[in-house]
Structure formats: C-alpha cells, structure tokens
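Troubleshooting log. The previous structure file for this entry was overwritten by mistake, so regenerating from the original sequence record. Sequence copied from the archived sheet and checked twice against the printout by T.R.
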Amino acid sequence: MSLPASLLLMLLRMSAPCDANTRVVLMPFERLALPSEDARELEDATRRAVAALPDACLESREDTLARLRGSGAALTACGDAECRSAQASALGVRRLVRGVALGVGGKRSVALTVTDARGPETRAQFEAPATTPGEADARARQALHQVWSPLVTAQATREPQRSSVLPRVLWGAGGAALLAGVGFGLAARSTESKVSRNGGECATAGQSFADCFESRLEAGRRQARTSNVLLGVGALLGVGGAVSFIWELP
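Regenerated output below.
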C-alpha cells in the first residue's frame, strides 16, 4: 500500500537537511496554569501543523533542545520583535515559533508568536478543548495559517524583481548602432552619387582628378563598410536584448 502524499513529503523533508531559507525552530512551549502533559500535547499539535507547511523545514525537538542547551539563557531575555528577529538570525533559522500554553478560565489555549529573521512578526491564539479528539491539530493548523500567510506575503513583497536593465541597455545600444549604420550608409550613397555625376567636385581638380576621384571613392567604401559593421552590431545587440529579456522572465 502506497504512502499518502503528505506523509511521503514529510519523510522527504526529514531526510533532507534544512537550510537557512527554510529552517524553522519551534521553541518548547511555556505554560501557565496548565499541566505539563497538556502543554506538551498542544506543543506537539502545533509542531505537526508547522511540519505540514509547504515552505517550512522544521527542526526536530531534540535538535532544538540541544541548541538551547548550547546557547544558555541567551534566548530567554528578549522583549521586542527586533530582538527576537536578531535571535532568529543568530540561530541561522528563517522563522522562530514561540508558544505559551494557557489553562486560564478552565480552557486550554495557545498564544503563538512567529518571528521572521528578516523582521516581521505575527501573533495568533487558539483554543483546543481536551474533550474533542483531533481538535488541537485542527485549531493549530488554522492558527498557523493565520500567522504564516502574512509572512509569505511580506516575503514576496520584499523580494527584488529581476532586473530588466540589461535588455534595455542592449536595445538602446543596438538602436544607436543601427541609426549610426543607416547614417553611414546614407553618407556612402551620397558620396557615390556625387562622384558618379560627372566626377562631382573632382571635375575641376585638373591633373589631380584621378587622385581626388580615388580618395572620394575610398571614402565611400569606408563609409559603406562602417555602415555594414554598425548594422550588424545593432542587429546582434537587438537579438542579445531579446534573449536577455526572455531569460529574465519569471
């Protein structure tokens, strides 16, 4: 019997190492007026919800505990989002998930805080009645969606768009080369026309007519060659700009 797709995806994530762009650390929950067994149940439900997110590579609880033991009390004394964001960066994680399991008013609930290493922080709270099997997992998924979606949107907004400067530069240079090529072509044609009409200005050159004619003819040839080169360069730059533009398409 084949594995469900979600389970297979989770196994693949567990076997692959996390990187700094996807690694998520879920801190062991703090608890307030709630037995430790209930707090751990709510933490595990939240952990399963985080592990199911498509853009999260969740660090194991064992690795997180080892990380905390190595860092001492450095992660506990933090009173603002900027400080917590700096902690996430120092840990080499993309997002840091904290939770407080509460038993106030006879209800079990969790206050979640998700801090992105690049600055944003979101919060949510959910209740998880102990009398309803599976309710903790469902409520945790809903709360994670509530706090995760704004971070994904903020990330997409912050990510720089692919630069389109190079295609514009190539097209501009190609257009200039084409215009210059056309100009030299017109100049060559003008020179040819002048020389072909009774020798042009060389007709009054007397004995130096041959030298004058040859120099004008050579000037026309140079202008024609320059025109051909510039037209070729302009065409190549135009093609290069088109290729660059297509390459940079998302």
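The chain has a mean pLDDT of 77. Archived copy saved in two places this time.
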